[in-house]
Amino acid sequence: MEALSTPTLPRGIRSRFIDNINGLRMHVLEAGFEGTGRPCLLLLHGFPELAFSWRKVMLPLAAAGYHVLAPDQRGYGRTTGWDAGYDGDLSAFRVLNLVRDTLGLVSALGRAHVAGVIGHDFGSPVAAWCALVRPDVFRSVALMSAPFPGPPAIPFATAGGSASGKAASPAWRAMAELAILDPPRKHYHLYYSTREADGNMRNCPQGIHSFLRAYYHYKSADCQDNRPHTLQSWTASELAKLPTYYVMELDKGMAETVAAHMPTEAEIAACRWLTEAELAVYAADYTRTGFQGGLNWYRTRTSGRFEAEQELFCGRTIDVPACFISGKSDWGVYQAPGAFERMQEKALTRMIGCQLVDGAGHWVQQEQPEAVSRALLDFLRAAEQA
């Protein structure tokens, strides 16, 4: 696999590989690598993204004196050593092993600790778990677009026989009841866990480039339909208020779902935060790898197989300086009812910033990179004093 070399990679960011990272040959983008002694920041992307998703904020962070690294995470891009099959070892994609990947990268760099770990979308819970499990290594954490409500709880005071298991929890019950609504629906986490999801997107009739264009547009502030608000409860009727990229029509895959929201040629030409040349970088990597690596992250969550090891941290909080950043037009803030509130009230005990950025949807660091760079630098300066 070749390093990333494209005119769309800004000057001052380099692409390279680091071997022997928990079984991976990890591809990373890097800025501020000149000289020594710079504090380090790790940037963790989500789905369907790449290290490339951080290109617009890496140089401002490096200009402020940081050594900035953004890896293609396990299952993505030019990082290799992971199993792309649906029937492979799913345990490699569980969140604590993703934390081990990140810790391995820090160690390979010869670092005892980093100044901060910053995660977007599904990278947000990975960053949160990094800070929860190893606060000595990850000295601050910035979560973006996906709130972290804390580790799962062990059933409490159940000796009298009143315990209720995961299958009966409000979240799982609501997801199951979506199918009996009119029209019938399904939750995207459950869809992404099916065998057919990868093929639906990878082999879609519109092609991966157009699929990703519609997907990114539909979840951005460019789509005027995104007017997020708090959901009152984990019920099917409340979840049904979410856009169809989260709560899908039962008989449609994601390729068909987003095709209905393909932007016009004029809208594409006007999109400055994701040009056609930049989109081609994503399309090329996903054409080569498919989506199954990223989808396996969702499968570890819906399978229930790995929750018991997370329950070891029941009651633990994130006690390093923390912040949350998202777009004002991002439904990701509210898609899990109560998570945004629990994050602020309980899960993050030293939260020193919560900002919803104007003019941004889900892809906040790409849609409004200047505002995100300022917010991150303000947070990092405050974290040093905290």
Extended strand count: 10
Lateral arrangement of strands in the main beta sheet:
1-2-4-3-5-6-9-10
**Would you state the CATH class of the largest domain?**
Alpha Beta
CATH architecture classification name of the largest domain: 3-Layer(aba) Sandwich
Q: CATH homologous superfamily name of the largest domain?
A: Alpha/Beta hydrolase fold, catalytic domain
Shape: globular
Give a structural overview:
By secondary structure, this protein is an alpha/beta fold. It folds into 2 domains: 14-153 and 306-385, Alpha/Beta hydrolase fold, catalytic domain (Rossmann fold); 166-295, no CATH class. It is built from 16 helices and 10 strands. The strands form 2 sheets. It has an 8-stranded mixed β-sheet with strand order 1-2-4-3-5-6-9-10, with helices on both faces. The chain has a two-stranded antiparallel sheet with strand order 7-8. A hairpin with a 2-residue loop joins strand 1 and strand 2. Helix 1 (55-63) crosses helix 16 (369-385) and helix 7 crosses helix 11 (276-289). The protein is globular and about 60 Å long. The termini are far apart. The model has no long low-confidence stretch (mean pLDDT 95).
